[in-house]
Amino acid sequence: MSAGIAPLVLLPGEGLEVLDQTLLPREERRLRLDTVEGLCEAIRSLRVRGAPLLGLCGAAGMALAATERGTGEASLREAARELTATRPTAVDLGAAVRGALEAALAADAARRETLLWERAEGMLARQRAVDGALAANGAPLLRGAVLTHCNTGALATGGLGTALAVIVEAHRRGLVDRCYATETRPLLQGARLTAWELQRAGVPATLLADTAAASLVASGRVAAVITGADRIAANGDVANKVGTYGLALMAARHAIPFYVAAPMTTVDLACPDGAAIPIEFREAAEVGGFGETRWAPAGIEAYNPAFDVTPADLVTAIITERGVARPPYGVALEELAARP
Amino acid sequence: MSAGIAPLVLLPGEGLEVLDQTLLPREERRLRLDTVEGLCEAIRSLRVRGAPLLGLCGAAGMALAATERGTGEASLREAARELTATRPTAVDLGAAVRGALEAALAADAARRETLLWERAEGMLARQRAVDGALAANGAPLLRGAVLTHCNTGALATGGLGTALAVIVEAHRRGLVDRCYATETRPLLQGARLTAWELQRAGVPATLLADTAAASLVASGRVAAVITGADRIAANGDVANKVGTYGLALMAARHAIPFYVAAPMTTVDLACPDGAAIPIEFREAAEVGGFGETRWAPAGIEAYNPAFDVTPADLVTAIITERGVARPPYGVALEELAARP
Questions:
Q1: Looking at the DSSP assignment, which residues form a beta bridge with residue A226?
Q2: Residues A253-300: tens digit of each pLDDT
Q3: Residue A191, number of CB atoms within 10 A of its CB
Q4: A250 contacts B250? CB cut-off 8 A
Q5: Which of A3, A59, A143, A225 could join A201 via S-S bond, C-beta 3.0 to 4.6 A?
Q6: Is position A273 annotated as part of the catalytic site?
């Protein structure tokens, strides 16, 4: 099922290998890391990114610390501090590091190195299993050509991906014959990463400016839209990469399905609806330019939310590793959450 | 009413001055042109662009030819060929050059130079008058903060602009207090040109990625959306810069008005509806990069329409220099077209 993209490879007792995502799609360079400091640099420089993948890096980093620096408590605590400090706001990273540290300290010093590597391997295997189940649940829903947004592939989760894994699996089954991908301004994850993953997976791919999506949907070229989610409220409102809401409006107008594919960890039953989801605003410099290049005049203000909220009434179905939820979501999501 | 931006200045009997739009917004450089060849280079290199402005350049170019090369028939015909060949698909350019040539040849050779300069001056004055009437008709419709797309200012028409002139006039009247402008991928006219024109006009301006528009409208920050039009069908369907249709869907969902501002020359009563409007597709290289910079992997296909069609049911009103049309557009546009 995998497209063969492994953004993180564990080499237990030795180190790890990461794909340098900052060089994509121009160059596919794998970095061998055998020091905690090297891994910290890779995280800080965004060579690895994506919340689930950063969680995996946290677990792997603690195993690497045991191999490189020994398993003394002071040494492990120092490594945990260094790893967490690389991206202080990355919740998955911090949680994985903390979990690994606590598990290690609860064991005999002699067992710690093996335990930490096994823990990282288990986490990677679970990520692949969840992504695989999600892809298998979603694939039968797709037909013909589909439109997606941002990057939701292996590069984002470290496993197989979410929405993009569904597309790749549906293509493998002969159900999907083309994937249209938005550029996804301002950070261009669609143009840089999704386009590359689709090429690697052998899925015929077409890129479009975000502005061209309504024209594409109106033209009848796509049979469905499918995206990931950052957070799903109890009523089915979906927070996801900014631009998602517009795509859902276009799908509704032209009566094609709008699917969301995300793991159950994304479903937040404590959050009643989209209005309760806090939206991160990012720095103005991301708008009106990219990287070192500026197009806009100096001093221009910017409106730059990282996410938007798609109201549940526009969402045809929510695809998870446990099954597919359909409206009314209040009931359907609770039912999925209650499954073993 | 003018923001003081003059992309084309006529210097009768001497030459002309154009603002080099390729250097905006980084640098505001005016080029003095006193040869037909110099003007041709400026057109070919997109230093001047925008259909109405190219029409003005065509008329000005023929006047320049008379001053530089004399008013003999062979010489004028050769200049007309050179000017038209710079942008063979630019309808306004070709029509203005042809009109000027025919008018000149119908007059005595001794009168031709004066006649051609007067013709160019008349055309520029008419452009300003049409844009001014359009701005005056539209301004009372706007309040608070508005959202616009692409560039529809003086840089596009050579006069005052269309939708952007309405916004600037509404700001001058104290009705509008902020303009949000989309970047407008793939050519980024919003980030490069509209942001600069708004700053020059003293209108508080905020730039956003095209993906952020639905979030902006949902947030309640804007009271209306207003764009230009490339062609308006008899039923009120509007072809305009790609991305317009998506904005109209967002406005409709959140019950704010979606206005179109365009001169009567844009209204094509012979065209029954949007389905009859041919859509230009542009080269794939515009998507997945900008200028010399590429973000997307090599070999990726692209879907790159220049325009999209907004169905008439999403258009609150069409603002022209003759008045404001409201649904049903079939009747309203015919009525405007019949006015003297």
A1: A259
A2: 999 999 999 999 999 999 999 999 988 898 999 999 998 899 999 999
A3: 30
A4: no
A5: A3
A6: no
* pLDDT, tens only, A203-243: 999 999 999 999 999 999 999 999 999 999 999 999 999 99
Q: Which residue of B has its CA nearest to A295?
A: B192
Rounded average pLDDT over A166-187: 98
**Pseudo-torsion of CA A26, A161, A289, A238, nearest 10°?**
170
Greatest Cα-to-Cα distance within chain A, rounded to the nearest angstrom: 64
Chain B touched by A296 (CB under 8 Å): yes
User: Over the stretch B196-208, which tens digit does the pLDDT of each residue have?
Assistant: 999 999 999 999 9
Q: Are B227 and B192 in contact (CB under 8 A)?
A: no
Give the Cα separation of A79 and A85 in Å (integer): 10
What's the longest Cα–Cα distance across chain B? Answer: 64
Task: Look at B215 and A245 and tell me if their CB atoms are within 8 Å.
Answer: yes
Q: What is the CA radius of gyration of chain B?
A: 20
Active-site residue list of B: 230
Are the CB atoms for A266 and A131 separated by under 8 Å?
A: no
Residue B224: name the closest of B264, B259, B271, B187 by CA.
B259
Nearest CA to B111 out of B55, B63, B59 is that of B63
Residue among A94, A308, A42 at smallest CA distance from B211: A308
φ, ψ of residue B291 in degrees (nearest 5): 60, -130
Instruction: Given the residues A92, A230, A268, A313, select the one marked as catalytic.
Output: A230
pLDDT digits (tens, 9 = 90+) for B48-73: 988 899 999 999 999 999 999 999 99
The count of CB pairs under 8 A between chains A and B is 198
Global pTM?
0.94
* Number of C-beta neighbours around residue B290 at 10 A: 20
- What tokens does A158 get? 């470290």
Report whether pLDDT(A108) > 80. yes
% of chain B residues with pLDDT over 90: 93
A295 to chain B, any CB pair closer than 8 A? The answer is: yes
Using the predicted structure, report yes or no on whether residue A313 has a pLDDT greater than 70. yes
- Stretch B211-227: mean pLDDT, rounded? 98
Name every residue whose Cβ is closer than 8 Å to that of residue B210 and which is 6 or more positions away in sequence: A185, A209, A210, A211, A243, B182, B183, B184, B185, B243
- DSSP state letters, A306-340: SEEEE-GGG-SEEEETTEEE-SSHHHHHHHHHH--
In the prediction, which pLDDT does B1 show?
39
For the record, the structure tokens of A296 come out as: 């806009």
Q: Do A211 and B185 touch (CB under 8 A)?
A: yes
Where helices occur in chain A by DSSP H, the ranges are 36-44, 51-69, 73-85, 91-105, 109-138, 154-157, 163-172, 189, 195-201, 213-218, 244-253, 329-338
Q: Which residue of A has its CA nearest to B208?
A: A303
